[in-house]
Each structure stands twice: as structure tokens, then as C-alpha cells.
Write a structure and sequence with these properties.
The strands form four sheets. The protein has an 18-stranded antiparallel beta barrel. Strands 8-9 form a two-stranded antiparallel ribbon. A hairpin with a 2-residue loop joins strand 18 and strand 19. By secondary structure, it is mainly β. The longest helix is centred in the first third of the chain and has 32 residues. It is globular, with a radius of gyration of 32 Å. It contains four helices and 25 strands.
Amino acid sequence: MSHALLAALLVASSTATAQTPVPDGSAPAPAATEAAPAAPASPSAEPPPAAAQGDSVTREDLDAAKQELREEIRAEAAKQSVDSGEWNEEFPEEKRKLEVFTLDGYFRLRPTLFYKFDLGKVPGQELFPRSPRSAGENTQSFATMRLRLEPVFNVSEQVSIKTEILGLDNVVLGSQPDNLYPGDQHNLFGVFSESQDSAVDMLEDSIKIRRAYGEVKTPVGILRFGRMGSQWGLGMLRNDGTCFDCDYGDTVDRIQFVTNPFEGWYVTPMFDFNSEGVVDGRGSQGEPVDLTQSDDSHSWVIAIARRDTDAVIRSKLNNNQSVLQYGLHFTYRTQNWEYDASTQNGIATGFIPRSASLYIPDLWLRYEERNWRLEFELAGTFGNIGNRALDAGNINDPTQNQSLRVAQFGGVAQGEVKVANNKLSLGLELGFASGDKAPGFGNYPARPGSGTNGFTEPGDSEGPQFRCGSGGCSDNAIRNFRFNRDYRVDLILWREIIGGITDAFYVRPSAKYTITEGFDLYARLIYSQTLYAESTPSFTSKALGVEANVGADYKTEDGFIAGVAYGILFPMSGLQEFDSTLRADLETPQTIRGWLGISF
């Protein structure tokens, strides 16, 4: 930084010199300096030679020198911010006055209209639920709301408790009229209802503490423990669901320690409690006990990343420097036994020797310049399940206890270019998720197919993605990779009708134009197809459809958010029925989504 300060002084000195009148043919006058103690006169001192007329400094020379020094100052400032700011950003509370309580979050309201989401299919073949009153009704309109709070209690500058609380989470407006309250006899007909009461829906908490964890900052890293969100890369596989339009989100019971061994590098070991099996609740009092560790499912996780904080990224980009970030998230998960406490799959209860293990690598890379960006994520899930039995009574049945392999992978590539003074952004996204020839998409493998023992048959849209029987397994591999449901690429096909990206390939060009700060218009076109025709309802065609989305977003500095989006899907032959007697002309579904909200 000393070089930058010296350069600043030189710029000031040069500016003073440039502002001193210089007579034609004479040398520039010396710049004024601060008074200093006089040095003893030296008898040998000679007066400095007069500057020659040809050596005079012009204003153009000074301007060029000042510009060069300014560039050096900017580069030095950017370097200083990278050198000293990153670790401080990881501990933001240490750099400001301690606030005992802070609160972030948002409130949103989303009015929505769906039109012809049944695709005009005959009753019983629709992929999206239709009206229970009449199959002829093809319009659904409603509005939902959500209050999301993130209170933080700072015990000290190093110790804090962080939480996430959801209130009225995705409650449909008008869905809890007081006349439905158990035992309420005030109104006989619903038309007389004047109030809403959350207690009407006993299965949906009006207030839900979704996450709570402790955070302790130490000289060597950050310790976090409790129930927290899980996010990595683009959110293709692990997505914490904290975006304004998100509905799901990955929540894990975890202990983790974030370390910063080298500048810009973060190494985070983690231990996840995925499933603890049999737990004795000890009645209404006392501490519950995990009765056996043999049925536990745990994950050992390591994340290694080279990344910059938001402040450093802004500093680099503003100084025309590139930003390269990348990392690896790796999970090893095991479960030896699984407890079957349900008689849904059979009459027996007890322990199933699952002998399962999974290896889940997830690579992420992002390269960014001031006017363009490239970003990639590639993930996979590999492993095996030693015994596929779903009922404890079938663990020794050779037709029910076969082993299965897991081999899934998927990826996303995004590119973005900004033009017209960064007002126009042009983007392209490519995505794929592995699959196989098993009938059905595989987003809901617990949903039984139409075949024997619940396996899928041609024309099924969902069900298990393996097939076993008395003669063994004709397909013993689960290959369909599933994107996180909060990773959204459209408004209709993957988000609503199919329910998530799997066994597919899609291309999405997009454009966004900023009218003014906080007001954006955008458009995108999405082509989608499966990797295998056998996975579609048609069983013969891969093409699913082309969807067009347009919309507008508006945000203010004080947190108000508003927007509207329109989507239309042109379905293709892959969504047609396999059984020719059940086929009908596919209709064009459309949607209008709006949102109002306040972010704080």
C-alpha cells in the first residue's frame, strides 16, 4: 500500500506543477513543499543546472503520467482488498459493532393461474392433478403466501445462534376458513365464513422452525452445529431453497468446520446425520434415545473450494480483473440396516440388511470477466444397495432381496454475455440428467407402476427405475439422476407437470434487459427431451416440448419486490399416450404467475 500512497503524493505534486504558469521558453516552476529544517550549507554544493528549453514538461505528459499512476493505484487497491478482506468477510460480525439480535427474511404473495395443465388427456392419464368436480374444468387459479424469517442471536462477537422460521408456508389464501374449525358450529355454510384460522389444518404448522444451528468463530476457523441448509455450486444437486421463489430446500442435521488454510481456499469437513432409525421418545418427557446405531445412515462430507467473497469479486470486476472460482464437494454415505416399522409393504416389521453405500462427487467451476461469465457443475451418485427388500418379511426371499447398483450423473453449463453498457444480458444454458430405458421418468420411484409387483410398464409416467422378479433382475441399476426441485429452468413442464429434471436434456437461451435500476424484462426459450424414449408416456418418442417464458421483475432499494411471468408450452409427441385407444390431441398449457413481496 506504501507504493499506492507514494503514487498519490506524486499525482498531487504533478497536479500542482501543472497548475503553475510556465512562461514560454522557461523551465517549470518548482512545486510548493512543506517547510523543513534547513540543512547546513555545503561549501561544495553547486546550484542545479538550469533545465534546457527542450526538456520542458507539457500538460499532455503530466496527464499521461497521472493516468498511469491512477491505474497503478487501482491495481494496488484491488490487491490489498484481496490480501486482507477475504478472511474478514468470513467473519462479518467482527468488523462492526455487535448487534445482539438481527433479522433477515421476506414475505411473499404469489397469485397463479394454470390453464390446461392436464394437456387435454383423457381422465386418468393426466400428469398434473385436475379438478375433482369435473374433467371439463381446465383452469386453476389461486394465491399462496409465505413468511420466511432468519433471526440471528449474537451472544458475543464470536458466538451466535442462527435460525430459519417459516410462517404460513405456502398456505393457499382462503384455504382455512373458520367454519372448518373442528367443533365450530357458528356457521352452517361456508359462504358465511368471515375469518381464517390456521388451526383448521392440523397437518400444516402455521409456524415452523425449519433450521437452527450454532456458530462459533475461532482463530483457526468456524464451527457450525445443528440443523442448517445445504448449498453448493449452482444448486443443481444441493440447494438450500432460500431464494424468493423457492419452495423446497435441503435441510441437514450437520456438524461442520470451515477452515481457511490458504488465502482464498476453504476446506470444510462435515458430518451429516441422515437417518437415525429407531428412536425411543421416552413418552412426553425426558431425552429421546437412539436405540441402535446399526440402522443409522450417516454421511462423511468434505468440501474444498477456491472462492472469493462478494466484496472481492466486485473489486476485481470493477478493476477489469478476472475471477476464477472452483471446488469439489464429496460425500460418502452408508447404512447397514434399515428399520421397517410399517405394514404398508407387508405384515412384518423389523430390520432389513440394507448394506448400502453411496459416493457423491460434485464439481463446480465459475470463470467471470466484467462483461461475461461461464459456470459449470457436474455431479454424480454411485454405489450399491445390498438388499432391495421393502418389508422385513422378505429379506430372505430370493425374488425380493436382490442387490441394486446406483450409477447417476448430471450437469449444467451456463454462459452469459453483457452488452449495451451491461443493460442487455444474453444467456445460454445446457443441462442433462442421466436415465435409462426403464418406463417412467423416475422422479417418484416410490409411486407404484402399472405392472406386476408395482414395476413400471410402457406408458407409465412414474415408478421404480429397476425391474426384478423370480428369475433375478432384468434391470438392477438405478441410473436416473434427479436435479434438485428448487433448481428451476421453466414455468410449466419441469416445474409443474413432470416435477423435476431427470432422464433428460434441455437447451435454454435467454435474454434480460434492464430498463432502469431494479426493473428488468426477460425472455427465455426451453427445448426439452428425454435421453430415452422408453421413459416417456409415449414409449416411442424423446421430444417433450418447447416452452416460452417472458416476464418482468421490479425491486426497490427498500425491499419491495413485484413481478409477473407468462409461460406457454407446446407439447410434443413424447407426452402422447402409448396406448392408442387413450390418445387425444395434446392441448397447449399456459400459466400466468405474479408475485408481491417485501425483503428485509
